[in-house]
Amino acid sequence: MSTARTGEVFDIGYQNYEGPREGRPRARRAVYKEGIRIALGIGRGGRAKIMPWAFIVAAGIPALVLALIAGTVDRLAGDFSAAIDLPSHGDYYGIASIIFLIFAAAVGPELLCPDRRDRVINLYLVRPITGTDYILARWAAFMTIMTLVTWLPQFILLTGLALGADNPATYLQDNWADTPRFLASGFVLAVYTTGIALAVASYTTRRAYAAAFIIGIFVISLPFATGLSQDIGGTAGEYLSLLNFSQIPILMNDIIFNENNLTTEEALSTQLPKITQIGWYAILTVVPFLVMWRRYWKLNP
Amino acid sequence: MTTLLAARDLRKSYGGVIALDGIDFEVNEGVTGLLGANGAGKSTAIKLFLGLINPTSGSAEVLGEDAASSVEIRARLGYMPEHDCLPGNVAAAEFLTHMAELSGLPPAYARSRAADTLRHVGLFEERYRPMGGYSTGMKQRVKLAQTLVHDPVLVLLDEPTAGLDPGGREEMLTLIRRTGQEFGISLMLSSHLMGDIERTCDSIIVLDAGKVVEQGAVTSFTEETESIAIEVDENREQLIEALKERGITPLIDGSALVIEGVIGDQYDLIRDALVAANAPLRRMAPRRHELTEIFERNGE
Prior knowledge:
The structure holds two protein chains of two kinds. By secondary structure, chain A is mostly helical. Chain A has one domain. Chain A contains twelve helices and no strands. Chain A starts with 22 loop residues before the first helix and ends with a helix. In chain B, the strands form three sheets. Chain B has a six-stranded mixed sheet, sandwiched between helices. In chain B, strands 2-1-4-5 form a four-stranded antiparallel sheet, covered by helices on one side. A four-stranded antiparallel sheet of chain B has the order 12-13-11-14, with no helix packed on it. By secondary structure, chain B is an alpha/beta fold. Chain B is globular. Chain B folds into two domains: 214 residues, Rossmann fold; 74 residues, Alpha-Beta Plaits. The longest helix of chain B has 16 residues. At the A-B interface, helix 1 and helix 5 of A face helix 2 and helix 3 of B.
């Protein structure tokens, strides 16, 4: 006859922590990691996941359609396939940039606004990080997400174009330069949208206000700058067309791919010297970053 | 005894408004109460020690370092603000894990500490629920838990019982006392409630209008300020006379006679006076001074 073993629960009381303490570097990584999780709705309810994932899917759909066209054009068009101008990596951001701009407007503020609205920021700043650590880590987190989100559709398109070719290996060999170009162009778009989105978000505790303002910057500036620049024309018109903020990263895309995009073919800003276009892009990237940084640097003890 | 906090001629003004007017004090191990009415400068003092704001002049030292310039030292501090500071759509376990990582703990340790700490504050079963659905008392406990999750040396609590019902207040004060006694973590808590401080603290610092008006051990403090309130069913005038004959002059406070600063054999004299006056005793209980009385006394 065996004796039944019974379990016992012991309350070992409060235990002091004897493990490693990794200080400020760990705290910075924690802010970065949490920024990634917030942007993708990880560790939050289902509603928090809807927005980012819906946009990620939406950004991928045009690429998927283009990839399917590229993959089936030979079979559908037969001998005429060579005459069809297949969509390229250089076209993609011109077609889909509005999705990325809205993604930045909708998701970016989520990384900053709730922390100030719920006053969680005060719990961050009493830990071993500064306001600068916090904002740089949040910026880096959203930058990472934006970069991956802009690259994902390009990889889908690349897959479609390669698989649609007679010999995928030969296609990749012949078009190897497209990959670093779209990586660079996606990065440029991500830096631009991240800076503007987080700069605006740093001035309000309401995500909806920030999103509306950012979308306003991109959407309203388009007809305003286009109409005004075409009315005025000439060199002044060329400079005024730089106020079309949604088009600036596409100008950089054109420079990187060394070709005009469908959406920039008629833009007067393309007439300006490339260095002017690059300089304007740099200003619109650096200034929002500095504005955002100053806003949080002031929170520094 | 280790000095955990030190204010040295610490002054903070906002424009023309002086929040702290050159205060000096030291806080050692144990539980210290920072007592004062609203606007006395308690929250300002705590924010200065946390380095959230810079002093106008003087210095605030934490664990031997200047609070305004030391970032790393904050890994050994905990802070519970008076206001709400919890994201509603995050579970307590997730939140505490993140807070532990923010204090420098590696992720695996942070997760383990988060679960342990939530158990200590009585929220283990609720740890995976989003905090937006928590009661005020539960939120206060999460706020306390996030101060403890990284096992700090010192925790600063700003009005920890604010907004709590009597039951929740009782639980919170018990938890604070346990944290100080059983967990071996030193605390400084601010309150405008004398009772909260007396129940939880070893020492006390009283602030009024940005100045330190009293400081010392709670026991000596309450000895000085303790009074006895006596209520009798009849023969109250005879009792007053009997007390006066024994050298005790009571104050009349409504239906009660109040005898201030009762010490030693005065209790025997009070007993004798009651017998001599043939006054049936209804109630005899210690009565603490109200905060305003402390300030009034100091003003005198």
